[in-house]
Amino acid sequence: MSKPCIICVAITGSLPTKDNNPAVPISIAEQVESTQEAFEAGATIAHCHVRDDAGKPTSDPERFARLKEGIETHCPGMIVQLSTGGRSGSGRDRGGMLPLAPDMASLSVGSNNFPTRVYENSPELVDWLASEMLAHDIKPEIEAFDLGHIVQATRMAQDGRLKAPLYVQFVMGVKNAMPADEPIFDFYIETLNRLAPDAEWCAAGIGPAQLTINEWSISKGGHTRTGLEDNVRLDRDTLAPSNAALVTRAVALCEKYERPVATWQQAREILGLRSVAA
């Protein structure tokens, strides 16, 4: 299989703390350093959250601006993807960083259950976030926690609320949402290929599902996501020493399945993103 595999590294997220794993990067400086290590290991997309001075998740545009600038300076060519996730703010605050015009931003197009709460994404908010991404020429990464999210994303592309071709990420292993189940995974691929044959897809596994989902996505021709946001361990007994270590594990799977790891230039071409000078 000769198609290059794009590796996304989710460096921090909203939940992991240094109590969970001391390697979790919290400050902007730590995040930039960790991202640079992951970039050098083979990651070409950085999925980014920011934290406040107390280490709590925030949607503060100023912090996102500093992180974006740091990554662009130290990881030239790497794709910067900012999170509009619901743990960092509410309502339109979740998209307050979109005028920064990052290469990409995450977009959840529907609601679902999380371990202790409802991840609420109202139609009005989804449409507003999508319109902001169109206005600022940002490519959404559709985070699909359920089959209906894939269907909704294709509808939004058909009626112009999203710009085709889509980039859809299957998220599996979240408690109370979709488990890491291979027949379901295969049906996701089949459904997306049928409804949006020009779409690219990625997959992310949460916790112990990370390695499994990495292998499924790489072996089946998709792209993949890893990183300390989703999983802080190499195995049950071993904490991951860095984001780069998790990226290195994904690179080894690419080698196993004879998939070249996408360079940042190839990743930008595959996703239809603007070219940049290194």
Which keywords apply here?
278 residues; TIM Barrel; two-stranded antiparallel sheet; 8 helices; globular
Structural write-up:
The protein is of the alpha/beta class. The protein has one domain (about 5-270): Aldolase class I (TIM Barrel, Alpha-Beta Barrel), CATH 3.20.20. The chain is built from eight helices and 14 strands. Helix 1 (about 30-40) links the parallel strand 1 and strand 2 (about 45-50). The model has no long low-confidence stretch (mean pLDDT about 95).
Q: CATH topology, anyone?
A: TIM Barrel
Structural class: alpha/beta
* Overall CATH architecture: Alpha-Beta Barrel
Number of helices: 8
Segments where pLDDT lies below 50 for 5+ residues? none
Radius of gyration: 17 Å
Estimate percent helicity: 25-40%
- Which shape, going by the Cα principal axes? globular
Beta-strand content bin = 15-25%
Instruction: Please tell me the overall pLDDT.
Output: 97
How would you characterize the largest beta sheet?
8 strands, parallel, barrel
Number of beta-strand segments: 14
Name the CATH superfamily classification: Aldolase class I
SSE order: EHEEEHEEEEHEHEHEHEEEHH
How many domains, as an integer? 1
Structure in a nutshell:
The chain has 278 residues and is α/β, with parallel strands linked by helices. It has helices at residues 28-41, 61-74, 123-135, 147-158, 182-195, 209-219, 243-256, 264-271; strands spanning 7-10, 45-48, 50-51, 57-58, 79-82, 104-107, 112-113, 118-119, 139-144, 167-172, 200-205, 223-226, 233-235, 238-239.
